[in-house]
Amino acid sequence: MSGFSIDWLDLREGADRRARADKLLEQARHWLQSDAAPQSEINVVDLGAGTGSTLRAFSAASGSNHDSLSWHLVDQDAQLLAQARLRHGDSHQLQTHELDLTDIAALPLEGAKLITASALFDLVSADFIERLAVEMDRRCQQQAVGLYSALNYDGTTSWTPAHPLDEDVLKAFNRDQQRDKGFGAALGPDAGTYMERVFNSLGFSVYSVSSPWVLDSDDSKLVDALISGIADAVAQDPALNAASLQDWIQFRKLHSLGGTCSVGHTDLLALPQGD
Length: 275
Known about the structure:
Low-confidence stretches: none
CATH architecture of the domain at 6-155 and 184-214 and 265-272: 3-Layer(aba) Sandwich
Structural class: alpha/beta
CATH superfamily of the domain at 6-155 and 184-214 and 265-272: Vaccinia Virus protein VP39
Largest sheet: 8 strands, mixed
Mean pLDDT: 94
Number of strands: 8
Shape: globular
Strand content: 15-25%
Radius of gyration: 19 Å
Number of helices: 9
Order of helices and strands: HHEHEHEEHEHHEEHHE
């Protein structure tokens, strides 16, 4: 899986927080508290945890009581996990696990009531989703476990003002999103719909809500970094002319303060049927 810098994760977190579907986050929190005995420990396993953005989103939710939650933060990046411990080790119950996320059998899922992830599942393969869903279904025979997956990229991006190359750049970027990111061929923009289909087929109740980034001049640093990231991703695409792409980059950066950008995402919650 491709690594992400602390600076990038911090830069995007404000937009992520605004984009998260509040209704689905509240439903996930309610699921965590349902049928929980007083003072009992509730295990949450966060995949691709980074510095702990999902933990922070749950903690910031209105009326949230994180004292009963025991977080297991899983990532392949030791530096990101060290930052998570530095930020939250004194305020939350948490353990960090530096693991290969593709090895589902090694993930600390024992006793988990909820598996969470943010901006992860568009990077993984169909096979990974299927194996994780089957493992969750198997574990539900002993203890019900749900999945909360936020900010799955859905393949849509719109800009103002418009540029003639916007559509071609988006198509090239979406092709790049389906490269192997360490899990096999990535689902990219198809992640949300594929997850919904797989979990439905196993009898989970699946809830899906749109959660787009809506960016304006207040997000100019993020927009500038996003433009650079897109440009790097599509630079080798044979369908794009290099000079035209450079013009697109310059135009986009020129309007990063005065323009707007919307990037589509989907939040998904899959719960055992009846819950």
